[in-house]
Amino acid sequence: MRFLTFDETLRPDGGSEVLCSVAGPIPCEGKDAAGYYFHLRALQQAGLWEDPTPPSAEASVTGAEGDGPSTPGGAAADDDKPPPGVDWKGGKAKKRKTVKRKDGADPYALLGLSNERWTANDAQIKAAYRKACLEHHPDKALVGVDCEKEKARVEEHFKMVQEAYEILTDPAKRREFDSTDEFDDTLPSSCDPKDFFKVFGPAFRRNARWSSATPVPEVGDDATPWEEVSKFYDFWYTFKSWREFPHPDEEDVECAESREHRRWIERNNSKLREKGKKDEGRRLRDFVDAAYKIDPRVARKKEDDRLERERKKAEKEEARRKAQEEEDARKAAEEEARKAAEEEAKRQLEEARRVREAAKAGLKQLRKRLRIVAEGCAGERLISEDDVEKITTKLEPEGMQALVDALCGCGGEGAALAAAHKEVLEEALRGIEARDAEAARAREVAKKEAAAAAKNAAKEEHRRKMAAMREWSEEELRLLDKACNKYPMGTPKRWDAVAAFVRTRTLDEVLLMVKDRQGASATRMKAQEDWKGAQKNPAAVRATADTRLEAFTDVEVKLEGEAAQLLGAAAAAAATAAAAAAAPAAAAPAAAAPAPAPAAAAAAPAAAAPAGKAAKAAASGAAAGEGAEAAAGAKGKKAAADTGVWSEAQELALVAALKQCPKELGAERWDAVAALVPGKGKAACFKRFKELRDAFRSKKGGAGGEGGDEGDE
Asked: Which domains does the chain possess?
């Protein structure tokens, strides 16, 4: 068979002649594309390649039973020798088992389907069999034939036609025959990317015949969209082949003696064929990998993906750089703003400091001028040092300036000028005292209002809870009374036990109903429950500390000496009432000291009151209040503040001032106390208070501050 022919005599003289033009592509089914062997044969006929395999090797490579036309011997012996420009990789020649065919007969050739072969369908096979039967049936072919050999040949040929039809109509036998039919297993492994579709396209189409899934996607061309290219490679990477690889050592299933024997043979044959299937899968997988590496569309896609990744990376880097620049600019702006704010704050602080220093210096000058004026002339002070201190500490800078201006505006000389200065200073003192008294009264009023508001709020809350609580039944009220009698005051967790006894009410509901029935507040109920605490502190002051103008009712108060004369009958009556009120509270054993007789509170004057008695008098609010008024009326009749001598009226005024000015005033308390004690300043009042407190504590033998003013307050 000649693939390429050329007659030199047909060449025209002096040139060339076009005898025909290239025809368009003609669709043709059932034909294999020219492969590796076609190239070798064409090169051999052109004198460009010589087969190095000796003729004896060709016979060894060719099928032992003559299964089809022989192939070029050099193709199997020299698989690694590639043609120019293309590398080919072919399977090694292996000994394979084929379907038994008499005399090497080809079933397709016997039925006249040599061209269609594996592409022939059932209808074509049936039609070809009928035609072959009509042609080769002995009843027709042996008409007029007397030769016995010819008769035997015709009958044998007809049997071969029947066997061929039997093989091609049995799916398993036909699949096995098609798998062992002559096929070009060589595949390209590399080529120039521009020749990819010319080299790898036919190879893909040849091997598509083994696909179990149909239709098989085409390779396409360079303009094929990437979605189709991706589907194409997905198909081939998951390629399912129906190709069988019979092994020479297999046993014939038809020779089985029983069903179990048949199954054992099938399992054994399947194991023998498994290696061939694995080799086939590896061959196709390597082929697809090589195609994927060389495919220019894949390379272009990878390059596009790389450029896209680099573009996104550059965009992210640019965005990060811009964000960093913005962040740096923002931080720089914030730093500048912070520095500017710090500079401004520093400047304002410096300005405020200068203003304060100037105001302080001006106030210092004003105080100095005020002290000079208060010194008077001829060694006679216009007002005491404590009064000067009160004016300088209580007046604002504007008030101090106005006072100094008023002092400077006074006319006259000598005693007249001193009297005018004194009048101005005393007027300033009266204004300060009036303002302090008004502030104290306002605080007392606010405190009382707050207490009243809290009390009203508690009552309103109690009423709200009572309204929200469902109505108590008679049985529940009876159980509540019974529980209160069963668990008296002093019982541990009394109200929990009462609530458990009632069972239908919660603890809060029980407490609300008990308070409502007894008309008691929460404070009163708590005080009633803490009966042991009342026994532990029998001498504790039980008067409310929010009303300083009222006297205590459970502390003995004795008025002696000049204080009793100044207070008069009103003070004596108040002391008597206080003692009478304190007597019932002191009836308990070891509760309180015995109350003094009424006459003793108004009599027994003395020249100087002892320190302990003065401290006891500090506990009586009513007597102290009356003493403060009497002391204020007797202002100027006792010794000056700088002498350190305290009269009885001044001590009583101190006690009353301590009761009237609570600790809540803070730093202003002692200024207010000094304003209510005639002839004494803040320092003198505080010093005398500590002396009285220490003396009373030492007399009580360390009773724990119960008689001290600070503790009472």
From this structure: 84-298 (1.10.287.110), 305-434 (no CATH), 469-536 (1.10.10.60), 562-712 (no CATH)
